[in-house]
Amino acid sequence: MNPYLKAKRDQYEALRSTIEGVQTRAASEERDLSEDELRSVKEQGETAKKIADEIQALVEIEQRSAAVAELGSKIDQAAEQTRAVSNTQAVDRDPGHYRSEAEGGTRSFFADLMRAKEDDGDARQRLSEHQRALSTGTNGSGILPPKWLSDEYATVARQTRRVADAVRHVNLGNDPRPITLPKQTAPTSVATQSAENATTSWTDAYNTGVDTVTPSTVVGGQKVSRQLLDASSPAIDQLIYGDLIAAYNSSVEARVVASMVTAAGTATATYATESAYNTAITQSGGNIPFLKDLAGAAAAVRNARKLPADLLIGSVSRYSTWLTMTDSTGRPLIPVASYGTVNAFGQGTIASDGSILGLNVIASDGVTQYPESILVARAADTVLFESQTLRFRYEEPDGPETIRLGVWGYVGVLTRYAGASVKRLQITAA
Questions:
Q1: What is the C-alpha radius of gyration for the chain, rounded to an integer number of angstroms?
Q2: Which of 110, 254, 403, 425 satisfies CB 3.0 to 4.6 Å to 374 for a cystine?
Q3: CA distance linking residue 354 with residue 323, whole number of Å
Q4: Model pTM?
Q5: Distances, alpha carbon 308 to alpha carbons 35, 302, 346, 358, in Å
Q6: φ and ψ at 78, to 5 degrees?
């Protein structure tokens, strides 16, 4: 299957699972969806609809491409011939120099960029034909990468994101200017009337302020040897993009997690060492201290934010320790779905990392170690501002044997209701 199409299907399934999880939680608590939950469901529903439409279009393209490939195979077996009709000829604008390997491409876009600088006439002609065939914008200098490269770029773009894909998103476009969001900083008050026709209690308590987000540039870059590009295989371009986007997304993921950690403030529970943490996740007297601490953090979010938390964020290695928690007889307290839910505090699912105490678990590499935080948060209260315009450059600063490829975007993160929407537990040291 086309890797981009597969990634889109996985993204759609993840959104569908999240939407169903919110509705299921509300149904189990016998309540209506809160305003934030309803807004989140609507936003994610709109995103899912766009992805579904894109998937449908991609499936049609795949089916059409398969049919064309079959016809092309038959044509290749026949003798070459040219047929003119009314002295006109149809011409495809795309010269097809830089098609993907799956489409039969044999040339590397980046290799031709390098060779053109060395006065390779053929490479320069291919680039010129390609640039004329495609529409270009005004977003900086350089030459436009072929469309199939952009598609592959989007395929890999979200693979390394976990928390960043769970929070709210706002598109920055190409505007990196600071963003101001208003907020209420002090509440009003009311009082019971002491007697009929008594004087109304008047106060001057209501006040407002602003949160300001200043987007910054997140950059991923990689040096590539000339020998690598000389292989002239489109697969090389895919590897280059994959490495660049992995670095870019890791940085975005780390920024989102760091914003939550900062907003959480002082930890609600602290484990001085790994040994102390291991003791806390071990059954003792019918209780697991860690689960009590976790429930306390979730309750603290509910008390302070007046709405429930829905995310539990930890490192991948920390998540593995949660899976090993057992009762006094050695039975896992968080079994896989096929085991049922007897004595279970949580349950894992195929679509996500599972749930613990009603919190959706996300195992993220964006969590730093020592002091290492375990976050309990409301996803809707963290906002990721991000541009969708990514610029590509190339140069040879180290001589003809090395070139540089880079990609960047504007990113800003804001966790609203600091100290209320996120709480954290902490393992201080090894």
A1: 27
A2: 425
A3: 10
A4: 0.60
A5: 12, 5, 17, 10
A6: -90, 165
* Sign of the four-CA dihedral 18, 23, 27, 32: positive
d(CA 222, CA 84): 49
Helices 121-133 and 109-117, axial angle in degrees (round to 10): 120
**What are residue 210's DSSP bridge partners?**
182
| DSSP, res 5 | H
User: Would you say 314 and 361 are in contact if contact means Cβ atoms under 8 Å apart?
Assistant: yes
Amino acid identity of residue 153, one-letter, is: Y
CA 284/CA 281 separation, integer angstroms: 9
Rounded Cα–Cα distance for residues 231 and 107 (Å): 9
Q: Round to the nearest angstrom and report the end-to-end CA distance of the chain.
A: 44
How far lies 250's CA from each of 8, 161, 245, 389, in Å?
Answer: 20, 7, 8, 18
The one-letter amino acid at 415: T
Tokens of 399: 């001589």
Distance CA 332, CA 348 (A): 12
DSSP state of 326: B
d(CA 356, CA 340) in angstroms, rounded, equals 15
Q: Which amino acid is at 136?
A: T
Structure tokens at 250: 């890791």
Amino acid at 278: N
Q: Assess contact for 405 and 221: CB atoms under 8 A.
A: yes
Which residue spans within 340-388 are E strands per DSSP? 346-347, 355-356, 359-363, 372-377, 382-386
Closest C-alpha to 166, from 386, 379, 359, 388:
379
In this structure, which amino acid lies at residue 309? Answer: A
110 close to 237: Cβ distance less than 8 angstroms: yes
Residue listed under structure tokens 């799956």: 102
Q: Is the dihedral of CA 280, 283, 284, 290 positive or negative?
A: positive
Q: Please answer whether residues 178 and 214 qualify as being in contact, where contact means their C-beta atoms are separated by less than 8 angstroms.
A: yes
